[in-house]
Please model this.
Amino acid sequence: MSTRRFIVVALLLAVNASFAQEKTDNVNLVQTFFQDATIAARPYGEGFFQYSDLEEGGSGIALAARAAFPIAPKFQLGGKLAFVNLSGDGESRGGITDLVASGRYKAVTGPTAIAVGGLVTLPIGDEDIGEGDLDFSFFGSLRHPASRNLVVTASFGLEFNEAGDGYINGLLFAGGVIHPLRSGLNLTGELNIRTEGMDLLSAGLDYPLRSGGRLRGAFLIGLDDKAPNFALRGGYAFGF
Model:
């Protein structure tokens, strides 16, 4: 291949990759919603309902809201709060979760985006549903357009989970893909592995509406005893 032809092919691949990245900038991940490499152009929020099938015949229902607020072109803050009801062994208990606060900074722009950030859970939740802990974590993440119709994502996190009078340290390894279709529908797949926490595999969809909102859904499968057997999620995302 001549030098000129090689340059042309390289430029075409770069243009296709950039196009894929731009098409999926507004597609948020399901599991690593906060540990991602994109920065919102404007404030946005998402509300969702999730049903979880738990071990030993139990179940859980969650109504959650989460949002992100760009403070600067490369920096955004976010938060999440939910109401959870757990049922099992003939009993039912419910309450609000701890408030999750997050922040991330886009360290590298361009076709491959890289961001760093952190999360902290403020212990305002109900202990009856296992909440009330001050946890925090730090992460690095990236998004890379592998082709015109495929974006790959990855995150690595260092997590500190409160346990009694101390903390348990854990690692997060997360990988995912986003596949945009011509119809506007985006398909997502994610695998999250935690050394201290739940291991989850998920498949999701994200569809933009003419009104400006987005319909979102996901099917999650637990891969260890700490995770639910499976979970179903449906939600709606919108810009402020």
Notes: Residues 156 and 173 are 5 Å apart (CA to CA). The chain is about 10% helix and 60% strand. The longest helix spans residues 3-23.
